[in-house]
Amino acid sequence: MRVDPTLQGLPPVLGRATRVLILGSFPGEASLIARQYYAHPRNHFWPLLAASIDAPLTALPYRERLRQLRANRIGLWDVIVACNRRGSLDGAIRMAERGEVGRVRRAAPAVALVCFNGKTAARALPAWRDAGYATLALPSSSPAYTRPFAEKLAAWRPIGEFLRLAR
Questions:
Q1: CA gap 19, 74 in Å, rounded
Q2: Annotation says 117 is catalytic
Q3: For residue 59, is it within any domain?
Q4: 126: CB partners within 8 A, 6+ apart
């Protein structure tokens, strides 16, 4: 029996002023290779978030995207920080190691809203809600989730609305 190697996720993008945390499931192969969140060119994450917060994220190099996220008080991480997986599909994840709510609370004490990018990530929603966070389950930005972009965007827009109200 072949055992897939354990993959390590990407480090969290968090700051003391982070108000909104977006949690994915676990980075796909393209993201792990690039060491960048949502690096697959067909993933809708950056266009969805750009439209939600009215910032030109898709036109920026990755480092600038992260700077813009921090400036807009948005953090990124994944609910799974390590796992065994062949390929990029969430359904292939085995032996998942979960991220800690306490780590976020220490690194980003101002987080008030935790969003979950897709169904796999949203399985962790109860733990975050029980820890006292407002939560929002979002449709996946993955190209494998084939809902129309406009439908996804309607569900993602509350991120920008929350941040505008939190000023």
A1: 6
A2: no
A3: yes
A4: none
Average pLDDT over residues 38-47: 96
Contact in structure between 76 and 57 (CB atoms under 8 Å): no
Q: Rounded CA gap, 154 and 17, in Å?
A: 26
* The pLDDT of residue 96 is above 90: no
Does a structural domain hold residue 1? Answer: no
| Residue type, position 12, single letter | P
Question: For residues 62 and 60, what is the distance between their CA atoms, to the nearest angstrom?
Answer: 6
Overall average pLDDT of the 108-125 stretch: 97
**At residue 58, does pLDDT exceed 60?**
yes
Residue numbers of the domain that contains 46: 6-165
Query: What is d(CA 146, CA 54) in angstroms, rounded to the nearest whole number?
Result: 23
Helix, strand or coil for residue 99? coil
As for how many domains the chain has, the answer is: 1
> Which residues have a Cβ under 8 Å from the Cβ of 106 and sit 6 or more positions away?
none
